[in-house]
Amino acid sequence: MRTTTRSTAILLLLVAATAACGTSAAQTGDAQPTTGGALTFATAVEPDCLDPAVSARDVTGVINRNIFDSLVRQAPDGSFHPWLAERWETAPDGRAYTFHLRSGVRFHDGTTL
After folding, report:
1. What pLDDT is attached to residue 48?
2. What predicted TM-score, i.e. pTM, was given to this entire model?
3. Could you tell me how far CA 64 lies from the centroid of its own chain?
4. Cβ neighbour number for residue 88 with a 10 Å cutoff
5. Low-confidence ranges of the chain (pLDDT < 50)
6. Cα–Cα distance between 108 and 112 in angstroms, integer?
7. What is stated as this protein's family in its record (predicted)?
8. Which residues neighbour 101 within 8 Å (Cβ) at sequence distance 6 or greater?
């Protein structure tokens, strides 16, 4: 009798664990994105400020990438590609750049850049 009770308990535990491992709509790709809500992002340390020109801390860059867009992005191979700027020109002396911004870019409140 005791073996039967233990076997039943183990079987029920396995069934519950297997059911908990089922796939949801989000896992199968059927989920639709939603607007709004909150995103919680944890880091071991806090950024010392939110000005990317002032802080040299890595965590500031990680946080700021979620807040600010850049004119260009740097690929893993070190090359630069358009981001907010569609293209850019470098002055012959290499001391000035002219950036041509993408159209349709908006701030978080909807105003046009």
Report:
1. 85
2. 0.50
3. 11
4. 14
5. none
6. 10
7. Belongs to the bacterial solute-binding protein 5 family.
8. 71, 84, 85, 86, 113
- Backbone φ and ψ for 87, nearest 5 degrees, come out as -160, 170
| Paired strand residues for 112 | 106
Q: According to the model, what pLDDT value does residue 3 have?
A: 61
Q: Which two tokens stand for residue 66?
A: 């979620």
CA distance 54 to 60: 10
pLDDT, position 24: 54
Q: How many CB atoms lie within 10 A of CB 60?
A: 19
Look up tokens 């260009």; give the residue: 72
Residue that the structure tokens 């002055």 belong to: 91
The amino acid at residue 41 is F
